[in-house]
Amino acid sequence: MAPPSTYESSWWGGSTEELGTPVVVKMDNPYSLVEIDGPGMAVAGHDKARGKNAKQLTWVLLLRAHRAVGCVAWLGAGFWSLMGAVNRRVRRSRDADAEPDAGRGRHMLRFLRAFLLLSLAMLAFETVAYLKGWHLPRLPDKYMHIDLPKHLQHLRHQLPENLRMPEKREIEGWLHAVYVAWLDFRIDYIAWAIQKLSGFCIVLFMVQSVDRIVLCLGCFWIKLRGIKPRLPQAKNADDDDIEDGDDLGAYFPMVLLQMPMCNEKEVYETSISHVCQIDWPRERMLVQVLDDSDDETCQMLIKAEVTKWSQRGVNIIYRHRLSRTGYKAGNLKSAMSCEYVKEYEFVAIFDADFQPNPDFLKLTVPHFKGNPELGLVQARWTFVNTDENLLTRLQNINLCFHFEVEQQVNSVYLNFFGFNGTAGVWRIKALEDSGGWMERTTVEDMDIAVRAHLDGWKFIYLNDVKVLCELPESYEAYRKQQHRWHSGPMQLFRLCLPAIFKSKIPLWKKANLVMLFFLLRKLILPFYSFTLFCVILPLTMFVPEAELPVWVICYVPMLMSLLNILPAPKSFPFVIPYLLFENTMSVTKFNAMVSGLFQLGSSYEWIVTKKAGRTSSESDIFALAEEADNSRGGPGIGGGNKLVRGVSEGGLEAWAKMHEHDPKDLQAAAPAETPKTPAKKSGKAKAPNRIFKKELALASLLLIAATRSLLSAQGLHFYFLLFQGVTFLVVGLDLIGEQVS
User: Fold this and answer.
1) Which residue has the higher pLDDT, 730 or 160?
2) 33-47, 555-569, 570-584: which range is least confident on average?
3) Which of 94, 129, 156 is the last residue of a domain?
4) Rounded to whole angstroms, what are the CA distances from 457 to 11, 103, 422, 430, 435?
5) Cβ(383)–Cβ(397) under 8 Å?
6) What is the C-alpha to C-alpha distance for residues 450 and 500, in angstroms, rounded to an integer?
7) CB distance 473 to 612 below 8 Å
8) 604 vs 118, which has greater pLDDT?
9) Which residues pair with 535 in a beta bridge?
10) Pairwise CA distance, residues 191 & 400, whole Å
11) Which residues form the domain of 44?
């Protein structure tokens, strides 16, 4: 034990023996060395170094070792889980060829495989050359200003600074000669071609960026000036349609509500419940449930739901086609051919997962009054599952920009935009004058909107009227949806181009339709995005004489991503994942664009987007329970403003627990359980996750290009390729959306 210090002895009068001083150890950073100092160490001796407590230092080191082992174990567990997920997805991918979309993008996959093999060979060749010192040697500064022969003058401009081609006497063996010949060919031909193509793509990129900035400025001006569609005001109190207490009078025209659906067992009940509770006179509206399901159990469930609401006094009918041709367009076309449709003036369309509020028609239909040129009123989509996973968050960014900026700006300044296919009200005369629903493309909504625009009809978008719906939660469902959304416009562009030139609309509207609506936003955007970031950028790593500027790779895309996120400010933390994910989706969009433009087979595929059957909140179940308890014998429709939400299969368990002793309520709320026909497995179980070969091929390509960039010491390019390659890997392994075991 150390003797007491002089200071301590004088303080205690020298009569107390010092038995040691307790030491408090504080570690702000557990990985830093800790010094343990006693109170008397500072005065113990000026010639001695500060001591350390060996015992406690040992404990600190053991703590470090424990944490290091825990970190390694955590990484090992994560790696093992990742390998397990990869193994499951590989097994799943063996059966992928039997699926309907197995042949989609086969040519694209072959191209990517060839590109990948070529990049591997080039990386191996360049690595050998680098290790042997065959890469372009440095030229001393004193020789940089010498005159070169005319046939070599181009080398001074194409070679990087202070680099020179090796002379013949410096060549070592046939492999070195091949490498030198490759350098010469690369500089003279390949670098030039890549530079020209990249310059063209950069021009397209800048044009699209300017378009995006103009749209944002237009939206800012709309917000600043408070520009939005206004309801028409009553001109005089003697109008026959005007009643006391209503500014617009008793304007209740005949409205048809159509609900097309196909094998959507998860969402039919919630959607029908919301549509049937729309606040509108019962005798002035009719609900058409247009069921194209080929699952007999699903048909019986939907029929039971329709019967339930019909018994409650709602004018609702169930239609099922025997000949299911034309997908959604054929379904709507068949419904519009009914004789009783002639009695109706407007038609509202809701897809199977949409949940309109009771005041939907009161907020949309009055805009048609006194405006005979108005053909469409479109409402905004909002989503019940925005925060479900990373995939839904990234989708929300895109769709918020689409509705808040694109649709609103085009509505205010052009009175034209693409119909979103649902949550909109059409004037039936506008549909009939434009030729009705056509089955020629997979984007029947955009088709009818373009034809109505060419006939002179005007559109209005209401950003304040919102309808709840559901985002795809799995990457597979989202990928198929995006393929349809990007192949259809190219089909439509080919078919509508002659009609656009022959139409009588002003020339500037024709230019907007061709140059902006179709070419720039539907064709050029996926083309340059895929070509620039997935083809040219990796190529420039293997051909360093042709390089992309840093501002093209990083700064401008980041600015565009920030502009996209402005309508969804809560998504700012996801700006980098959003940028990387959009580049990843460029593969699917480019493939879809090509298939639609050249009429490939996959452009005519229609696959219903899978739904999870989510409602707006868990309180919907309790709202339904309260309504059933207070309104036995059938609720009144349109009598109040309280929204009573139905539940799908996911909420029936909670409903059953609340009504264990009341089987009548359970039977009324869940008629879906009454049919005894066994359900098909395909409609019940979710397909497990699988791998996506094109995304994995591009992940390998970008990671190889990132490795090659290390040889050229291109720092920012390396990090971009690395993160983009990892993003492709995550998406290719289907780790971004819903995980199904």
Assistant:
1) 730
2) 33-47
3) 94
4) 99, 40, 18, 7, 13
5) no
6) 9
7) yes
8) 118
9) none
10) 40
11) 24-94
Residue 351 included in any domain: yes
30 versus 334: the higher-pLDDT residue is 334
Is the four-CA dihedral 686, 690, 694, 698 of positive or negative sign? positive
The answer to whether 644 and 624 have CB atoms below 8 angstroms apart is yes
**Which has more confidence, 687 or 30?**
687
Q: Tell me, what amino acid is at 215?
A: L
Q: Which residues are catalytic?
A: 292, 445
List the CATH number of the domain containing 279: 3.90.550.10
Q: Which of 613, 585, 570, 607 is nearest to 471 (CA)?
A: 613
What is the Cβ-side half-sphere exposure of residue 567, based on CA atoms within 13 angstroms?
25
In DSSP terms, 163 is beta-bridged to: 138
Q: For strand 316-320 and strand 285-291, is the pairing parallel, antiparallel, or unpaired?
A: parallel
Higher pLDDT, 695 or 101: 695
- 8 Å CB contact between 351 and 422: yes
Q: Answer whether residue 172 is part of any domain.
A: no
91 alpha carbon, distance to own chain's centre? 27
Kindly provide the b/e burial profile for residues 480-493, where b requires at least 16 CB atoms within 10 angstroms of the residue's own CB.
bbbbbbbbbbbbbb
Domain boundary among 94, 123, 149: 94
For residue 610, tell me if it sits in a domain: no
- What stretches of 598-711 show up as alpha helix (H) in DSSP? 619-630, 652-658, 663-669, 693-711
Residue 683 banded pLDDT, cuts 50, 70, 90: very low
Which amino acid is it at 230?
Answer: R
- Tell me the pLDDT band of 178, cut-offs 50, 70 and 90: confident
Which residue type does 219 have? C
Residue 191 belongs to a domain: no
* DSSP SS3 for 482: helix
Question: Encoding tokens for residue 33?
Answer: 């060395």
**pLDDT score of 89 more than 90:** no
Most confident of 31-35, 624-628, 717-721: 717-721
Q: What is the pLDDT of residue 381?
A: 97
Sheet of 424-427: strand order equals 316-320, 285-291, 255-261, 346-349, 424-427, 374-383, 458-469
For 571, which DSSP code? G
Position 144, amino acid: M
Distance linking the first and last C-alpha atoms of the chain: 63
| Beta carbons within 8 Å of 499's beta carbon, 6+ residues apart | 451, 454
Instruction: Report the share of the chain in percent with pLDDT over 70.
Output: 69
Give the largest CA-CA distance in the chain.
114
Whether the CB-CB separation of 497 and 514 falls below 8 Å is answered with yes
pLDDT reported for residue 322: 85
Q: What is the pLDDT of residues 489-530, one digit of tens each?
A: 999 999 999 999 999 999 999 999 999 999 999 999 999 999
Three-state SS for 380?
A: strand
Q: Residue 351 burial (CB < 10 Å; 0-12/13-18/19+)?
A: buried
Q: Which contiguous run of DSSP H or E holds residue 237?
A: none
Structural domain total, the chain: 2
